[in-house]
Design goal:
By secondary structure, the protein is an alpha+beta fold. It folds into three domains: 297 residues, no CATH class; 110 residues, no CATH class; 155 residues, Immunoglobulin-like, CATH 2.60.40. The chain is built from 23 helices and 21 strands. The chain has a seven-stranded antiparallel β-sheet with strand order 5-17-14-12-11-19-20. Strands 9, 10, 13, 15, 16, 18 and 21 form a seven-stranded mixed β-sheet that branches. A five-stranded mixed β-sheet has the order 4-3-6-8-7, with no helix packed on it. Helix 4 packs parallel to helix 7 and helix 8 packs parallel to helix 10. The longest helix is centred in the N-terminal third of the chain and has 26 residues. The protein starts with a helix and ends in an 8-residue tail after the last strand.
Length: 679
Amino acid sequence: MSQRHLHLVLATLLLLLAAGLRLWDLGTIPPGFNSTEMASLLMTEHASAGAIRVFDRELGQIEEMMFHVLQAVLTGPTGKGLITLRLPSVWSGLLTVALLYALARRLYGPRAALLAAGLLAAGFWPALLSRLSLREALVPLWTVTALLALVNAFHIRQRVSPETPTLTGYTLLGIVVASSLYVHWFGIFLAVIVTAAVAYLFLSRQPISRHAFGASIFAILLSIIVIIPYLATTVRLPEVSGLAALQAAMSPESLPRSIINALAAIFPRGDPDPAFNLPGRPLFGPLSAFLLLGGVAHGLAYWRRPSAFLPVLAAAISLVPALLSTRPGSFMALTGALPMLVLLAGRGADLALDVLVDYRPGLRSALPWLAAGLIAANFVWAGSDLLIRFPAQPAVRQAFNAGRGALAAYLDRTAHRIPTVVCSPHLQNTAAQPGDPLLLELMMHREDAPLRYVDCANGLILAEGGARQQIVFTDRTLYDRIHPTLRAWLEGQPSVSVSGLVDGSVLQVDVARTLGDTVGRFMTTAPTGYAPESPGGAGAARLPVRFGGNITYLGYAPPDDPTYAPGDVVPVITYWRTDGPVPADLRIFTHVLSDPAAIVSQSSVINVWPPSLCNRDIFLQVSYVTLPDSIPPGQYDLSIGAYQAGSGLRLPVFDGDRVRGDRLFLYQITVTAPGEATG
């Protein structure tokens, strides 16, 4: 086997090892999505829905949308899930290893290329970054691609060649640099790197073709054409542009502290954020840090040699975001510099082996084993930390919403076989994080599992008429906050032990018979009447009562004592059934009336997530109406109904096929004078 083929075999082996480190247990390491990924995934949802623009903003983050568009395209045919949504980052990480090998081989030779690619393949942060669904995963790839395009365009190898430039090389260089602006604001620094590198080549009088200047002008003009939409959006919407994100990322409170922490993140302290690192783990270990210094020293010593100096120049410029970061010591701020630092460390390792042979010629035959040992040690170190220690850290589990991740994995296995109700206090998307319906949808791989969502504290869903089902809690402490009437349906139901979830998080429930008896008793224990203004006038309603919007009123839980004082809170517990798709903005209103037309106090709420309701589901709703402090003593009626929040239109009440108004009357409450005893 020739030396060239041997090097290709070794490079392929490194790629396979890199793939193993990035793909092993991809669905559980990390154990979920962190808050930064949540914002990123919401932007991918926008791209999937066709809302494609230059910049997007979610959960306080401003990001360029190229990564999100690519992720939407790549995951569209395969669906969502922890594994699927991370695969674009995995492919990006592996391509970066391959292209770094190609770049290092051109600049330094095959041995340095294997060492650099090996250090990148076996790095903890590069491997973790390849497992995160973040646009930063593309930054090292674009950085290496731009530098590779640069050295190819100017024919830079270990020596510079004055060959005539090719249009293809400069076209690729212009497109890569310009498109980097659509990936991340680091593209601004990448453009500075390429500009500084070209200026260096001309000012240091390198033996390049006299046609290179004209070709460079062509690449610049091409870049300007490509970035016209970027510039137009920046001028029109500066507050959501890459410049706004850059300013937010590079405005340190203390410049000395920011610089010190950035250098300490490389060695010896690392990133303190548990979402991106193990506590105290540096970007480079002691030996790799020493080799990095050797590569930098060599580049500075041979500054007139482009193959030696250009990586040092690129590393220095790409370190600026980390040195001026608002998150001191952040690995995220080092993503642009990462491939250049690894490239210099690989060069330093290559030079160290040469020095070793000069002092101990007898070790020449052992050089391949020493190089392999360095890479293997990094693989073992990174593998142990990434696959064992990292996911076991409590702070990591909290940062990545590990409970949701474990729940998503369990639901992937079971929710298609048994009706499933998810109890969650986070049903709606907020400015802080997406609600659990969206978050679990992103984490799960199955798309055919109909999950019902309810907050359980003041609402409950009994799927398919109370038949055998499972009720799962995203937060087990929620059980203690459930209204007693609702909790009675869950007490005594067996629980299922699930790895990664707190005991009691999954309950097996079968209450069909009890539910049927309860609803049957409403005919005599929960009399309900039509509104007096309805066609046909007031009168007893025969339960159940059908409403518009495919919902049916089944009855209410009578109170033990309907006597209250001013300022008290009146709980009203109603039972409803779905008979098909219901309005996504469905709400239940409850009114306290001094007469049929005078509302004293009211509540409008629903504690289920309406889009998740399925046919024949029964949901219980606890509505709370606060009585005014100034309410006079006396008898007051309670009325209920349903409406759509978007339009405000009430759903009609039916008696057979006849419309009987848009509300029902339940029972009366008694309000006592202040100071009088109440039941």
